[in-house]
Amino acid sequence: MSAEQDILLETGTNELEIIEFFVHENVDGERQTHYFGVNVAKVLEVVEAPDGLEGSEAAPHPSFLGTIPLRDLILPVIDLSVWLDMERDAEENEPIIVTEFNNAVTGFRVSGVTQIHRVNWRDVEPPPRYVASFDTNCITGTVKIHDRFALMLDLEQVLSELDGSGGQTGTGDVERSDTRYRALVADDSTSVRALLSNNFAAANFEAEVVGDGAEAWSRLEKVRELSRQENRSPLEYLDVVVSDIEMPQMDGYTLTRRIKEDPILKVIPVCLFSSLISKGLRHKGESVKADDQVTKPEFDELTSRVIQLIREWDPEKAARS
Predict the structure, then answer these.
(1) Does 171 fall in a domain?
(2) Structural domain boundaries enclosing 31
(3) Is there a domain that residue 100 lies in?
(4) What stretch of H or E contains 44?
(5) Strand-pair partners of 242
(6) Are 233 and 96 part of one and the same domain?
(7) Spatial separation of the C-alpha atoms in residues 96 and 233, rounded to whole Å
(8) DSSP per residue over 200-232, as a string?
(9) Residue 57 · residue 68 · CB < 8 Å
């Protein structure tokens, strides 16, 4: 089996690998353990926290523990227990999970790491009500692992709230298209959906914004049926699909693969928009035939790139591929 086939087996199957870790909390003198998960694709390595790594009153946020050297990097470290408003029950030899996304390398201190699990996005459920007690909206869902549930963390939201950007780095001065285009946009974050909706409206798009890949695919099935009934190209109903990658029910890779393998829908251009798009992971989008990939959180660049993609799109070439 070739390396290229290996990639196809790993991408677009609606599966992901998560690294499970835990945080010990001191609750009235008793230890409680909370389990969390994050996409392995965002994790570079796990290292041991050095002695004496503690926060400072001068820090921009109580969860910021400062920086540590890591080979050729100066690594900023965040204490997740502080961020989640927990009183951490300290453990010896606590690890730091070193992550890379949004073109930044960041460390997150936790109590311990268990192992890596492969799960299906269909098994990721909405977060339970009790997580509303956390003073953050970085919990995106839950997944059952053996006899317990792990909370899925949106680490991008943690960083965006820390730096005050809210996840948006653009100026808001988006390119406006002379032609009114139609886009189907999928993202599981409520705040991101609102930003995308505003930006695409400002760029002269009629954009339908949905919450996950499964919902987007349901809309596309209706476009396909309409195209069949009226014997017209799906491009007469929809100009482009824009999708996040990490979404419950159906991820962006699987959505893209389904579109590009469908004999009717494959002529629709697809742009992936995600913090997972990096030099080391771009091949995953290419393997499912995404037509463009834009790294979050470049919202302004996204609309310009989508306009360019539509203008340069060759539906006849796409139909032959």
Answers:
(1) no
(2) 3-163
(3) yes
(4) strand 43-48
(5) 185, 271
(6) no
(7) 51
(8) HHHTTEEEEEESSHHHHHHHHHHHHHHHHHHT-
(9) no
Long-range contacts of 85-88 (CB under 8 A, 24+ apart): 85/134, 85/135, 85/136, 86/23, 86/25, 86/34, 87/25, 87/26, 87/27, 88/23, 88/24, 88/25, 88/26
**Averaged pLDDT for residues 251-265:** 96
Which amino acid appears at position 85 of this protein?
A: D
pLDDT beyond 50 at 160: yes
pLDDT confidence tier of residue 8, bands split at 50, 70 and 90 = very low
Higher per-residue pLDDT: 2 or 166? 166
How confident is the model at residue 275, as a pLDDT? Answer: 86
pLDDT of res. 134: 56
Give the separation between CA 22 and CA 35, rounded to whole angstroms. Answer: 4
Q: Is the peptide bond before 60 cis (omega within 30 degrees of 0)?
A: no
More confident residue, 272 or 168: 272
Domain-embedded: residue 176: no
Per-residue pLDDT of 215-248, as tens digits, reads 999 999 999 999 999 999 999 999 999 999 998 8
Nearest alpha-carbon partner for 294 in 224, 196, 208: 196
DSSP string, 173-206: -----SS-EEEEEE-S-HHHHHHHHHHHHHTTEE
Say whether both 245 and 293 belong to one domain: yes
Q: 53-58: list long-range contacts, CB under 8 Å, 24+ apart.
A: 53/77, 53/109, 55/79, 55/82
pTM score, whole prediction: 0.82
- Number of structural domains (the chain) is 2
Which tokens is 318 given? 């796409």
User: Domain of 39: which CATH number?
Assistant: 2.40.50.180
CA triple 167-173-179, angle to 5 deg? 115
